[in-house]
Amino acid sequence: MRTILHSDLNNFYASVEMLKHPEFRNKPLAVCGSIEDRHGVVLAKNYLAKSFGVKTGDVFWQAKTKCPDLEGIQADFSAYYDISLQIMEIYKRYTDRIEPFGIDECWLDVSGCAKYFGSGKQIAELISGEIKEKFGLTVSIGVSWNKIFAKLGSDLKKPDAITEITPENYRTLIWNLPAENMLFVGRATKEKLHRFNIFTIGEIALADKDFLFGKLGKWGEYLYRYANGQDDSPVTAVNQDRKVKSVGNSLTSYRDLMNFEDVKTLLLLLSDSVATRIREGHYGKAHTIKVTVTDNQLKTYGKQERYAIPFRSAGELGKKACKLFSEFYDWAAPVRAVGVSVSDFAQTKEDLFDFSSGSRKNEKMEETVFRLKKKYGYNCVQRAQILKDKRFFDMDVSGGHLIFTDDNKED
Ligand SMILES: [Mg+2]
Q1: Domain housing 378
Q2: Ligand 1 center to residue 302 CA distance, Å?
Q3: What's the CA-to-centroid distance between 179 and ligand 1, angstroms?
Q4: pLDDT at 113
Q5: If you average pLDDT over residues 280-299, what whole number do you get?
Q6: Which of 223, 231, 307, 357 is deepest in the core (most CB within 10 A)?
Q7: What would the DSSP string read from start to end of 249-311?
C-alpha cells in the first residue's frame, strides 16, 4: 500500500500578506487582483474576513459592504511564487515524488520512506512543523494510500491539521460527504449524479459500477473507483514534465448543421469550455489550435495552425477556431460534430497561480466570467450567439470537460 500526503497551505495568499504586513494580522484582509479600481475581484481572504462572509470571487466594493473594515491588498504573485518554491525545497527533503496542484497544494508520495522519517502521519507532522517554523504558515495535510483520499483528508480539517484516512476509517470519514467534495466532481457531474439519487461519496461507492459506466461512460467508472479508494494514479515526480499535451472538447449536435452561423455557435461553446479547462488546469497559453469536423456522412476533417504568440482566452480561441473552420470546410455535406483542441503549451510564471495577473481588459472580463461560472454553474453566463438556438444552450459542454480529453488523463 502506498503512503501519499496531500499538503495544502491554508489561506496561502492572505497568509503571506499577513506575514509581509504584520499590521494586517488582526484585521479582515482581502487579496485582490487589482485595488486601484474598486472593481477588483477578491482572490483570497483571511479567516477574519471570511467570518464576515467575504468570499473569493466577490468584487471588492461588494465585499466591503459586508465587512466595512475590510483591508484590500493587491496580489503579489512573485512573492507567492518565491515562497512556494522555498516550501517545495522542504518537501523535496522527504521525497522526489512531488506533484504540485496549483501554487499552494501538492501531493507527495512517501511510500517506503518510513525507515528514514517514520509513518505518513509522522512525516506530515515533520513537514507541518518545519513550514510553521520557517515561514510562519500553516498547512492542512491529508494522509492516505491514494491521491483522491489524501486530497479529501487535507480538506477535512483546516487550518493547521493532519487527517489520516485509512482503509479502516474511510467509510466513516468520507462516505457521508457530498459527492462534489471529491476531486474532479464538478457541477455538471454533480447534477447528473443527483438525477440518479446519488448525493454522497458513499452513494457513488455503493452504486452499481455498470450503471455508472452506462450513464457516465469511462468517467463513471473512474468515480466509482475513486470513491472506493481504488485510485492508483501515480504522484508525478517533480522533475517529470507535466503530461498535458493538449486539451480539447468535442460536441455532436442534436441536428445537422447547415450553415456557418450554426457551426460558429458550437465552436464558441467549445472554445469557452476549452478556455475554462486551460484556466482550471493552469496549463498556461497554447501556441496551436486544431479544429475537427465530422459531417453527416461520418467523414472527419481537421486542420491545425500554430501561432507564434500563445493564447488562452475564450475570445481568441473562438475567433481562431472560426477562422480555421472557414478556411478548410467546403460544405460538401452538413456538419454533425465539431471539436476544438489546443496544444503546445507555453507556461509562464504567472500562469502557475492565477489568471488575475492579466492586464488586458479582455482577460479581466474572462476572469470574471470564469469565476462566475465556477460559483454559479457553467451556464450562468452565456454568449448571445448561443441564444440563436435555445437547444444549444442545454447542451452540456462543461460535462465534456473530462470525458472528451485527448491524450491527457485527468485523474
Ligand atoms: Mg490552500
Answers
A1: 246-403
A2: 41
A3: 20
A4: 86
A5: 85
A6: 223
A7: EEEEEEEEE-SHHHHHHHHHHHHHHHHHHHHHHT--EEEEEEEEEEETT--EEEEEEEEEEEE
Output the nine-digit C-alpha cell for 212. 455508472
pLDDT in tens, 301-344: 889 999 988 898 889 999 999 999 999 999 989 998 899 999 88
Domain end: 148, 166, 184, which one?
Answer: 166
What is the CATH number for 106?
3.30.70.270
CA of 368 to the centre of ligand 1 (A): 21
In 10 A of CB 152, how many CB atoms?
Answer: 24
CA of 252 from ligand 1 middle (Å) equals: 37
Residue 8 CA to ligand 1 centre (angstroms): 5
Same domain, 398 and 254: yes
Beta-carbon neighbours within 5 Å of ion ligand 1:
8-9, 12, 104
Write phi, then psi, for 98 (nearest 5 degrees): -125, 130
Instruction: Please count the residues of the chain.
Output: 411
CA of 9 to the centre of ligand 1 (A): 4
For the chain, first and last CA: distance in Å? 19
CATH number at residue 192: 1.10.150.20
- Considering the domain boundaries, does residue 237 fall inside one? no
**Chain segment 208-266, per-residue pLDDT in tens:** 999 999 999 888 999 999 999 999 988 976 554 445 677 888 887 777 889 998 899 88
Q: How many domains does the chain have?
A: 3
Q: In terms of domains, do 194 and 329 share one?
A: no
Residue at 234 is within a domain: no
* pLDDT per position as a tens digit, 354-393: 343 344 556 666 666 666 666 655 555 555 555 555 555 4
C-alpha cell at 181: 467534495
- For the entire predicted model, the pTM comes to 0.61
Considering the domain architecture, whether residues 152 and 190 belong to the same structural domain is answered as no
Does residue 368 sit in the same domain as residue 342?
A: yes
Q: Are residues 150 and 3 in the same domain?
A: yes
How many other CB atoms are there within 10 angstroms of residue 221's CB atom?
14
State how far Cα 377 lies from the chain centre: 14
- In-domain check, residue 232: no
* DSSP state, residue 372: H
Same domain, 209 and 144: no
Active site residues: 105
- Look at residue 376 and give its three-state secondary structure: helix
Is residue 341, in this structure, part of any structural domain at all? yes
- What gap in Å lies between CA 274 and CA 266, rounded to an integer? 12
| Residue 252, beta-bridge partner list | 337
Q: Are the CB atoms for 10 and 140 separated by under 8 Å?
A: yes
Are the CB atoms for 89 and 132 separated by under 8 Å?
no
